[in-house]
């Protein structure tokens, strides 16, 4: 009973924030809170990649995320679960400090944010990111958009510009948030040269860890729209993550149990 | 006026078409997602097994050629015996033959076998045969002190050489904190005494535990993207060697790195020929830049130095004066995985999904400065979910007194299949 009450109160709170004079910063914070649990958690992500309508790759990842109380951003440890050739590999992301660990040669290698470990999804896409921390938001209007379920949604359109362009994957983002509750509906991500890199639809909303969250993101390549990645999130759970897990020297020691 | 109105209408129609086209493309993508199957969530398991099979054809310097067939089982178990205790075993069994029907030669290698006790989140103690690898560089790792003589593959690929090697028997303790760690390892002599990297070492313990040695390492995060690692290493009867590993990010695409080791040591020639009279402070280093280009292409350029190597022209002189002693020197340099010249250059290229989806390309050129010795290697690997196919090509160039010219083969082509379980 108390849980149900808390859920309703939480939803009402998010909706109130969304409507409160449509402050773009508050809207962005509210949508971040919908996408990301506010405490340490773990989930499983399945990435299915399509080229020209055919499935070309599948990866399963276990993602451990912990908010950094100092910086307000998340630190993320990604464990590759499937396919078999990738099993046991790890990626650690703390801002732009990125490390890749391969258990076969026990090497922890620093990688750059531009280096991709997966197909279309960037390392930043699989990591947990608070957009409100890295982007300045401007409300550019309200419009009807088609959501991931092909329903028309009335949405705030936010124009996000990176506050420190060298620290993020995308220089600017257009983000559509449902006017009723600040749920992310759709986003467009742009490069430094203002080229559309990808479009993302947030869908399959489900109650996870106390909040209705999108459990699927459909990513469409900006240059080749037939290149599609479906990211499905499952098995959400609160998980205490020790600080020592989130540093390079622990990668060879990490075991999922 | 009407022309202007007409062009305005045309632009509006064109924009509407673009918008409709984009909507149709998004709709098609969402339809794919609708049909995407719900894959069962795979559970972590304590073992991994690779089966490798293939054939290689090599060409010798005199133009003759040879074929070799090979298959290998490579497995690893990392099993939790108790909440704080794990057992780790990694082994590779490789069988090779000159023809498919000939008798196969079997080479079993126990790469690792140790117990790991972790009484808390920040303390770990390991004991057994452990593979310890150090270094941030790609082609030459001067701080990877346990690499000498431990490699059990003929592949020149630096990734393969780091993977396929024997661990040393040791005890090590590590203390971690939020932003760094310190560790101490002790590796005892368990076989007749000889210098690490001696080509005459034939059994596993002789290759890895022929001398008492210890290593102290420490690392600490400094700022957002700087994490140096310091090392002090000592072999019984020799001077301590000091090491430093450092790398950092430049922008979004570049990583610059440096690796250095130094201490009083003999030259490579003296070490290989038991001539101890030229001990002095010598440095080894590798400095490089890795840059990621669009389309998942990554290039690395690395400058390597070896203070124990020979100066320009010295290899020709030594080779002419005493071919046997110089041959020993080349064999030692191969086993130590060190350049034989004072300076060398290494470049590495890799590309994911090159030309077609799932096709990876990797290759390098190692060039020794001053004697024209070169080695080039190229791999095409097609990835599938449970297996991969790869075609590897390797070629050496150089006079017989250079480390690549002294290798028995001039070129080599391999076709391999790897099955993953």
What does this structure look like?
The complex is a heterodimer of chains A (257) and B (421). Chain A is mainly β and 257 residues long. Chain A has helices at 2-19, 24-35, 123-126, 131-134; strands at 41-51, 54-67, 74-82, 90-94, 97-102, 107-111, 135-146, 152-162, 172-178, 184-190, 196-208, 211-221, 227-238. Chain A has a 13-stranded antiparallel β-sheet with strand order 6-5-4-3-2-1-13-12-11-10-9-8-7. In chain A, a hairpin with a 4-residue loop joins strand 5 and strand 6. In chain A, 45% of the residues are buried. The model of chain A is unreliable at 5-12 and 14-20 (pLDDT under 50). By secondary structure, chain B is α+β, with helices and mostly antiparallel strands. Chain B has a single domain (55-420), classed as Porin (Beta Barrel). Chain B has helices spanning 2-35, 158-163, 204-208, 268-272, 314-321, 323-336, and strands at 47-60, 65-82, 85-97, 105-120, 123-130, 168-177, 180-187, 213-220, 229-235, 241-250, 254-265, 280-293, 297-306, 343-351, 359-368, 374-383, 387-397, 409-420. Chain B has an 18-stranded antiparallel barrel. Chain B is globular. The chains are: A mainly beta (257), B alpha+beta (421). The interface between A and B is large, with 67 and 69 residues.
- Give the helix tally of chain A: 4
Q: Sum up the overall morphology of chain A in one term.
A: globular
| CATH architectural designation of chain B | Beta Barrel
Instruction: Report how far the terminal alpha carbons of chain A are from each other.
Output: 32 Å
Mean pLDDT of chain A: 86
- Pattern of helices and strands of chain B: HEEEEEHEEHEEEEHEEHHEEEEE
Biggest pleated-sheet summary of chain B: 18 strands, antiparallel, barrel
CATH superfamily (homologous) name of chain B: Porin
Shape of chain B: globular
Number of domains of chain B: 1
């Amino acid at each position: 009973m108390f849980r149900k009450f808390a859920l309703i109160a939480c939803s009402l709170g998010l909706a109130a924030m969304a409507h409160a004079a449509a402050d773009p910063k508050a809207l962005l914070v509210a949508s971040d809170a919908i996408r990301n649990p506010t405490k340490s958690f773990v989930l499983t992500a399945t990435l299915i990649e399509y080229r020209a309508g055919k499935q070309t790759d599948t990866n399963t990842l276990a993602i451990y995320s912990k908010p950094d109380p100092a910086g307000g951003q998340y630190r993320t440890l990604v464990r590759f679960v499937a396919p078999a050739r990738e099993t046991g590999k790890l990626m650690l992301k703390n801002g732009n400090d990125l490390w890749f660990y391969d258990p076969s040669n026990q090497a922890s290698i620093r990688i750059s944010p531009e280096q991709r470990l997966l197909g279309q999804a960037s390392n930043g896409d699989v990591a947990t990111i608070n957009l409100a921390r890295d982007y300045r938001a401007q409300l550019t209007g309200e419009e009807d958009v088609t959501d991931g379920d092909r329903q028309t949604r009335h949405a705030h359109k936010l124009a996000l510009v990176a506050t420190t362009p060298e620290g993020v994957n995308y220089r600017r983002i257009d983000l559509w948030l449902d006017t009723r509750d600040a749920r992310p509906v759709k986003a467009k991500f742009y490069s430094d040269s203002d080229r559309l890199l990808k479009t993302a639809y947030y869908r399959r909303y489900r109650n996870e860890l106390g909040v209705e969250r999108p459990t699927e993101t459909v990513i469409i390549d900006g240059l080749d729209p037939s290149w599609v990645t479906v990211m499905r999130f499952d098995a959400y759970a609160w998980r205490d993550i020790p600080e020592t897990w989130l540093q390079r020297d622990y990668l060879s020691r990490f075991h999922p149990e | 006026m009407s022309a202007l109105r007409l062009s305005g209408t045309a632009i509006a129609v064109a924009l509407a078409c673009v918008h409709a086209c984009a909507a149709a493309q998004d709709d098609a993508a969402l339809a794919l997602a609708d049909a995407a199957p719900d894959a069962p969530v795979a559970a972590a398991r304590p073992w991994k097994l690779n089966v490798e099979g293939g054939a290689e054809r090599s060409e010798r310097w005199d133009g003759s050629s040879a074929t070799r067939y090979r298959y290998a089982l490579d497995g690893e178990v990392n099993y939790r015996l108790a909440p704080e205790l794990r057992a780790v075993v990694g082994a590779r069994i490789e069988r090779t033959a000159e023809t498919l029907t000939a008798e196969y030669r079997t080479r079993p290698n126990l790469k690792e076998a140790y117990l790991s006790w972790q009484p808390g989140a920040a303390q770990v103690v390991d004991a057994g045969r452990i593979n310890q690898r150090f270094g941030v560089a790609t082609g030459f790792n001067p701080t990877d002190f346990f690499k000498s003589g431990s490699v059990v593959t003929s592949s020149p690929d630096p990734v393969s050489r780091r993977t396929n090697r024997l661990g040393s028997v040791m005890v090590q303790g590590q203390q971690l904190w939020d932003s760094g760690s310190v560790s101490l390892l002790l590796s005892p002599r368990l076989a007749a005494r000889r210098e690490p990297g001696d080509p005459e070492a034939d059994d596993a313990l002789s290759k890895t535990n022929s001398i008492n040695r210890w290593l102290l390492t420490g690392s600490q995060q400094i700022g957002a993207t700087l994490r140096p690692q310091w090392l002090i290493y000592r072999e019984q009867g020799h001077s301590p060697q000091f090491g430093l590993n450092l790398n950092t990010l430049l922008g979004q695409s570049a990583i610059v790195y440096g690796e250095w080791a130094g201490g009083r040591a003999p030259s490579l020639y003296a070490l290989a020929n038991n001539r101890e009279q030229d001990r002095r402070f010598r440095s080894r280093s590798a400095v490089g830049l890795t840059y990621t280009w669009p389309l998942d292409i990554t290039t690395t350029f690395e400058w390597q130095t070896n203070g124990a190597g020979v100066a320009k022209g010295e290899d020709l002189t030594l080779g002419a004066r005493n071919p046997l002693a110089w041959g020993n020197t080349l064999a030692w340099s191969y086993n130590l995985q060190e350049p034989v010249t004072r300076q060398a250059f290494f470049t590495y290229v890799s590309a994911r999904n090159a030309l077609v989806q799932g096709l990876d390309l990797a290759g390098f050129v190692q060039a020794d400065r001053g004697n024209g010795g070169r080695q080039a290697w190229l791999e095409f690997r097609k990835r599938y979910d449970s297996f991969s196919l790869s075609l590897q090509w390797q070629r050496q160039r150089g006079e017989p007194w250079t480390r690549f010219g002294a290798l028995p083969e001039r070129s080599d082509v391999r076709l391999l299949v790897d099955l993953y379980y």
